[in-house]
Amino acid sequence: MEWFTVGVFAAGALFAMQLITILNRCHRFRGFVYESAKFSPAERTTIEVHVRPRVGTAAICSGCHQPAAGYDHLPERRFEVIPLWGFLVFFLYRMRRVNCEACGVVVEEVPWASGKHQLTKVYMQFLAHWARKLSWKETAEAFRTSWDKVCHSVQYIVSWGLEHRTLGPIRAIGVDEIQYAKGHKYLTLVYQIDAKLTRLLWVGKERTVATFEEFFAMIGQQLAGQIEFVCSDMWKPYLRVIREKCSQALHILDRFHIVAKMNEALDDVRAGEARKMAREGHEPLLKKTRWCVLKRKENLTSQQRFRLRDLLRYNLQTVRAYLLKEDFQQFWEYNSPTWAGKFLDEWCRQTMRSRIEPMKKIAKTLRAHRDLILNYFKAKKEFSSGVVEGLNNKAKVTMRRSYGFRTFRITELALYHTLGKLPEPELTHEFY
Ligand SMILES: [Zn+2]
Questions:
Q1: Would you say 344 and 366 are in contact if contact means Cβ atoms under 8 Å apart?
Q2: CA of 103 to the centre of ligand 1 (A)
């Protein structure tokens, strides 16, 4: 042998030995042995690790999870493991079939993979972990794999999590709808908003009575009966289901949704008036005032503040609507439901006399939901919508970056994955 052949051989042997040592340290399985590790003869960037059963250990039946007598071997299968320094790593293993007394002739169960998945469990958990921090596309690129494999990985980890999570006890929930595709395609999201635990509990297609009822079917009557607070917007189907399924709970209308509705009305007034003035050939006083009136005072830029001060000198509907909206801010400062109620009634009376249609509509809505709105004060402001609003914003970000296809299934997966706080299989080694 030439000196350099000896050298290469020794390096190869050393490499194989060290890789096996590492694997035994971080990813060891009872009943199996890492036999050899070498570069693939066909692919320079691939490392192949041969795995074999430990002599004298019986295979486990995948039907009943009990040891069973061997039957035969299947052709070698490849299982993808976490890549190492830019090299793809595969386990090569010939699955055994067992002749199980209970299940007949079935394939064995191996601890590193599940079902027909080509990816090992640990690799799926690894990819799913990164898919929470990066977009799915970025995750696929970073680890030289495909978007589909990232998606499979998330699917695996989410179904494991849903199967193993503990649902109760649930003290407070918030329900909200979110648009997930163009053309009024909505999802119903139910969050747990307890002080100690906030998480996404459930995702439902559409925002109907039937949708929301599915959530209560999932948690069951016992848990539903223990819910003390429910936060929602004014969406009728939600209100109805809450009345029926959670009659014992204090139902609170979200502050965030009321403020949003108020801003919508103000924006309608402003846009309508701006159009009217343009039509009648007036000076474009309302140009570039949208954010001046919609933003909270303390968030205005100095230029916007000047613009607003200027605007307030005119007797415009927009200005009057703006002042009504600003006045309403005080409402949230009250502590007593009684005084808050008096303020609300007075505000509605004034607004009804304003002859500004969108604002009158708001006043009517607030009157119609008076009790639910005042529940906010009865709950001692404990469940302000801040929590639901925050979760909803996270949901929107997740939907924007997590997927290539806007299907319900993918959206649901991505949302559970990032917001569900689902448990994960325990690993003996921290791979990430
Ligand atoms: Zn069996």
A1: yes
A2: 4
